[in-house]
Write a structure and sequence with these properties.
CATH topology: Four Helix Bundle (Hemerythrin (Met), subunit A)
Structural class: mainly alpha
Largest sheet: 2 strands, antiparallel
Order of helices and strands: HHHHEEHH
CATH class: Mainly Alpha
Number of helices: 6
Shape: globular
Number of strands: 2
Amino acid sequence: MVQLVETEDSLLAQFFLHNTWANLRLLDACKGLTDEQLDTTATGTMGTIRNTLVHIVGAEQRYLASLTGQPREEPLERKPFTSIADLRERARSSGEGLAEVAARTTSEGIIETTWQGQATQVKISTLLIQAINHGAEHRAHVNTILTQLGIEPPRIDGWAYSER
């Protein structure tokens, strides 16, 4: 299990605070899109904007559940799409949880989790790294599609985060 300490200004937590901020900015940029735009994809991306946003948020919920030992819900990707506002609230909640775990994690440990339907053991650092990389990669996919639609994607890089 994850060892926790009382630390709110952890450097590692800052990566997750940026990750959450970037997710929220991207969701805000997509809230006014039409269904046709949300269902657009582009070569080299994982799927439609809608499916990619759901995938980003659903994966973060699963990472948080694994890191905290919470029971896993049915994957968000298998549920009917509700709204960008719902995804935004879920992204905020899971993002805050991941930042809290990151801020308070003090040791490298192994957790039991499920990967592709199989029980497995994973290093905490691997799961934290994957959470950051996964979000960045798929946000880039959505930005690519937005650009191909002629829509200026939001600035979500580290420089923009420092200017907020």
